[in-house]
Design goal:
Radius of gyration: 16 Å
Distance between the termini: 34 Å
Largest sheet: 6 strands, mixed
Number of strands: 13
Structural class: alpha/beta
Amino acid sequence: MMLHQIGGLGYDSNMYLIIDDVVTLIDAGTGQNFKIVRQNLEKLGLKPSDIELLINTHCHFDHTGGDVDFLKAGCEIAIYESEAALLRKGDRHVTMAHFFGVHPEPLEVARELHDGDRIELGSSVLEVIHTPGHTQGSICLYEPRLGALFSGDTVFYGDVGRTDLPTGDYRALAKSLKKLAELRPKSLYPGHGPSADDGAHEVILSAIELI
């Protein structure tokens, strides 16, 4: 598995590109910096049409606003089952698109994810972990062989996701963090801010103490 971060400017979420048999993108940012994202792909010898699967860690616009550009390029979109309908109807409120003054286009969701799903990419596999708290349908993705955790907005390096937005739940977030701690991951790739190539388990334990 080859991993590259190809986006994360301004309000954009971090965007993680996994190059394997199935070229996969985790989160798509707002879409407002798509030109730069495309340039970053070109540096790797890729085009948006080369990405086969786009997995959203949750429905917020700073993670899903760019979905439309990849969908038009032929990519399939996946998101947790309870938030698929929000993308399909172009919801503005729960997705926080109204914060950006945007009326999002309704999107076709090809795959509804469930807790415990295994997404086979080739030499790597992503395990879907339902981690409600930041939103009701937030997920993390875990590659067990590498101990790599893609944590969305559930936990960051030195912080945790907000719970004061629609469908947020402080108690649910606390339970989700304990669930992640049981994995004892090695590396952490959050939805915003810096990643941690090592010591991810300790980062999560610190987050538990924080809340």
